[in-house]
């Protein structure tokens, strides 16, 4: 896969994950702990993996 094609796929995914992380942090008081943990921690791991792919 060419880098440009990979970035066209990866960049929107990273954008959605970044927005999800921000919203889950801002709405942490309104979410149950289970939902917060699933969304924020799981999304964080996916975001780190996506950033790792983006750098490589």
Task: Tell me briefly what this model is.
The protein is mainly α. The protein is 84% helix and 0% strand. It has helices at residues 3-26, 33-55.
Describe this structure in words.
It is built from 2 helices and no strands. Helix 1 packs antiparallel against helix 2 (33-55). The longest helix has 24 residues, at 3-26. The chain has helices at residues 3-26, 33-55. The protein has one domain (3-55). The model has no long low-confidence stretch (mean pLDDT 93).
Distance between the termini: 13 Å
Helical segment count: 2
**Apparent shape:** elongated
Biggest sheet character: none
User: Number of domains in the coordinates?
Assistant: 1
**N-to-C SSE series?**
HH
Radius of gyration: 13 Å
Note the beta-strand portion: under 5%
Percent of residues in helices comes to over 70%
Q: What is the number of strand segments?
A: 0
Look at the helices and sheets and give the structural class.
mainly alpha
Low-confidence stretches: none
Arithmetic mean of pLDDT: 93
């Amino acid at each position: 896969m060419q880098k440009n094609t990979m970035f066209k796929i990866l960049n929107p995914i990273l954008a959605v994950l970044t927005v999800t992380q921000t919203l889950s942090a801002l709405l942490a008081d309104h979410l149950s702990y289970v939902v917060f943990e699933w969304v924020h921690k799981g999304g964080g791991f996916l975001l780190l993996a996506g950033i790792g792919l983006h750098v490589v």
